[in-house]
Structure formats: structure tokens, C-alpha cells
Amino acid sequence: GAGVSQSPRYKVTKRGQDVALRCDPISGHVSLYWYRQALGQGPEFLTYFNYEAQQDKSGLPNDRFSAERPEGSISTLTIQRTEQRDSAMYRCASSKLDRLLPTEAFFGQGTRLTVV
Amino acid sequence: QKEVEQDPGPLSVPEGAIVSLNCTYSNSAFQYFMWYRQYSRKGPELLMYTYSSGNKEDGRFTAQVDKSSKYISLFIRDSQPSDSATYLCAMSANGNQFYFGTGTSLTVIP
Predict the structure, then answer these.
(1) Which chain A residues contact residue B44 at CB under 8 A?
(2) Is the pLDDT of residue A1 over 60?
(3) For residue B1, pLDDT beyond 70
(4) Which of A14, A37, B76, B100 could form a disulfide with A89 if both were Cys (CB 3.0 to 4.6 A apart)?
(5) Residue of B nearest to A58 (CA)
(6) Considering all CA atoms of chain A, what is the largest pairwise distance in Å, rounded to the nearest integer?
(7) Using CB atoms within 10 A of its CB, is residue B62 exposed (0-12), middle (13-18) or buried (19+)?
(8) Tens digits of residue pLDDT in A39-97
(9) Shortest alpha-carbon distance between residue A66 and chain B (Å)
(10) Confidence of residue B49 (pLDDT cuts 50, 70, 90)
(11) Where is pLDDT greater, at B101 or A101?
């Protein structure tokens, strides 16, 4: 596709349910980053991949959060046993490099997750 | 202390005004300094970036970095209603992740 695509655009889930958020990066992009953006806040780093390898998961808030990128393309961020505090916009970014540089970082439109 | 601090505003100015947006940071390892613009319900879009210190100008926009003070600024001259958006500063040391400010909401009134 022309840009980074995320799905679903909106997700409302009940507390305690598991959710899976999908990121489809720009074709051929090497690195993929997940960010979370709470209302009125800037994006906060969660984790990133180079190809299929998860390089840094230090930003994942707790063990309910996990991410994978099994074939080095599409990535899934999974939140188990969702809580209301997980409500936020989840953004994905990709880069053709193995690093995130300003001119080579492209952000998706995000998935708005609401836990009720 | 957060890595990057940014006044969330909101900021409201009349059309044609000069706008000054600022961020401070604590990590002296930051080398890339970026400004993103985010319209409502859209993803962040890169507006300008500076590597290391100094100034950069692009049309009505000027970005300044003062590493000695750990302070960066974005100036918008002759502001237009279309400039109304949230402006996010972001910084990076090695390209492995960006650290964002909270964003400043700007409204330019016609």
C-alpha cells in the first residue's frame, strides 16, 4: 500500500477481553515500531522490530502486552485481559532502514482502543 | 522527570501572528530534533527536523536547537488558519526510538 495501514481503526472492547491490533507497514520496510498515545499526550514507545526480530520491548507496560512480526512484514500487538487504562490510540510506524530516522519514519493513522 | 517536556497549551492566536512553540529535554545524547504536526484524527506528519545544533528554516517555519540549554523551538511566521493543529516535538539519540513531547494544541483564528 501507499502508507502504513492499521486495523481496525476503532475497537471497543469489554474489560477483561483480549484484543489484537494489526499493523501493515509500507512494503519492504525493515523496521516497525509500536507507540501508544493517550488523549492529550504524545506517543510513547512500546516496542520495535527489525525484520521479524523484536529488538526492544522495554516500553511494553506489563506482561499483558505482547507483539510479534513472524514474517518480517505485518505485525500484531496483542493486549490480554484488557483494562480501562489500556484505552488509547495505538500507532505503528515503519522505516526502510533498521533505525527510525526523521525522514524515513512513517506513521499510520492508528487504532483507537476503548475499553469499557 | 520526563525525557521531553512540552507545554500542552492550548494556544490561540490571530491570523498573521508569530507563534513560538518550545520543548525542553534532559537527555544530552539526543541528536535528532523533530517537529511533527498532527491534525485531528490523523497520524503525526514530519514538519521539520534538525540534526545536532543550530537553526533550520523552511518557508514560514524556523526550527532552533540550543543543546547547551537543552531547549528547542519552532517559530511559525504569518500564521494561517490551516496551521491549526497539534504540534509535537520529538527527539532521538540513535534512531532506535523517538521520545515525544505531549504536544501543543494551536488554533489560528481568522
Answers:
(1) 43, 91, 107
(2) no
(3) no
(4) A37
(5) B97
(6) 39
(7) middle
(8) 888 889 999 999 999 999 999 999 999 999 999 999 999 999 999 999 999 999 999 98
(9) 18
(10) very high
(11) B101
> Would the pLDDT of B8 be above 90?
no
Q: Which own/partner contact pairs does A63-67 have at CB distance under 8 Å and 24+ positions apart?
A: A67/A34
Q: Give the integer Cα–Cα distance in Å for A32 and A100.
A: 9
Interface test with A, best of B4, B98, B104 (most A CBs within 10 A): B98
A13-32 per-residue burial string, b: 16 or more CB within 10 A, e: under 16: beeeeebebebbbbeebbbb
Residue where the block lists cell 524515513:
A104
B98 and A59 within 8 Å at the Cβ level: the answer is no
Give every CB contact of residue A104 below 8 A, 6+ residues apart in sequence: A95, A96, A97
- Residue of chain B whose Cα is closest to the Cα of A101: B95
